């Protein structure tokens, strides 16, 4: 059973910073990749950032240069450092991890954590 537990969300003023953490049960090395998604009220869930096993990363255009995803294999944790936050970054942020055997992909999700950026 894969468990992903997010922490670090909250309320921050525009221009501020937050660091989200996603702790996993067991080694993160078993995952092909991990990432962060977000869902704002009335909108679809969207990709924010991903990091794959090789540590290559990819970001949504809206967060490039402001957000950084990284991981600590020893702590089995993935982080999302969010700087220069904007009100439009307000959303529930979800940690995601996925495995693949080459034929299918299995996704796992955290419960989500609220990030609110006030103007």
Report the portion of residues in β strands: over 45%
By DSSP (H or I, 4+ residues per run), the number of helices equals 0
**Mean pLDDT across all amino acids:** 96
Order of helix and strand elements from N to C terminus = EEEEEEEEEEE
Unreliable parts: none
Fold and architecture overview:
This protein is mainly β. It has no helices and 11 strands. The strands form 2 sheets. Strands 2, 4, 5, 6, 9, 10 and 11 form a 7-stranded mixed β-sheet that branches. Strands 1-3-8-7 form a 4-stranded antiparallel β-sheet, with no helix packed on it. A hairpin with a 4-residue loop joins strand 7 and strand 8. The radius of gyration is 14 Å and the shape is globular.
Give the key terms.
mainly beta; globular; 119 residues; seven-stranded mixed sheet; four-stranded antiparallel sheet
Structure described in brief:
The protein is mainly β. It contains no helices and eleven strands. It has strands at 4-7, 10-13, 18-24, 33-39, 46-52, 57-59, 67-72, 77-82, 91-100, 105-109, 113-118.
List the helices and strands and how they pair.
Layout: E1 4-7, E2 10-13, E3 18-24, E4 33-39, E5 46-52, E6 57-59, E7 67-72, E8 77-82, E9 91-100, E10 105-109, E11 113-118
Parallel strand pairs: 2-11
Antiparallel strand pairs: 1-3, 3-8, 4-5, 4-9, 5-6, 7-8, 9-10, 9-11
